[in-house]
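Let's sit down with a protein and look at its sequence and fold side by side. Please make up or recall a protein chain and show it to me in full. Label the sequence line and the structure token line clearly, so we can match residues to local backbone shapes. Go ahead whenever you are ready, and we will take it from there.
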Amino acid sequence: MACHRGAQVPADFPHPSSSADSAELIDPADQATDATAGRGRVLVRDATPQDMAAVQRIYAHHVLHGTATFEEQPPTVEDMLARRRHMVELGMPYLVAEADAEVVGYCYAAPYRPRIAYRYTLEDSIYLAQGRAGKGLGKALLAELLARCERGPWRQMIAVIGGNENQASINLHRGMGFTHVGTQPATGFKFGRWIDVVFMQRALGSGGSAPPSDLP
């Protein structure tokens, strides 16, 4: 889905002070949302370390077979545990979708860029298990991710999508209020071909209409 480039955010990334809601993201037991996806029920909740083996399997499929990520070698479960831990330490939401007691998708928000002036802008990433697209899981995950982020200090979310042909991700984000803001042609090279990168953007809360609420 939304392209995750695999870059790791520095541990000393300067980020806004988290609100009480954002701080609560570290406790997954307190955060869960039921939604209907397809013909069944899906639970969207905070990911736990125990979920990361399933998350790694989902992501590995996209690394090996898709352009939603520009990584070419699947990270290990230990790598994915470290990535999740780092996002949680930054106060970012990292969510999974569970159906029939199985993790069938995940998403998270990450800092868009490491420079301090970008600190109110996030990038989203969403990945679904093989065969689970088109069942409403992406919408359920993204809706909860947006709701969580809007409770924090952030004001913009960017979707970085690998490939103009990735209409499922483009349509998902458009349906959730994102607009197309640009395309970088031939930016990635994977599977023996050049891949465009599509940028979509959505305001969080009041967006750019007012200064950040946590300024001194």
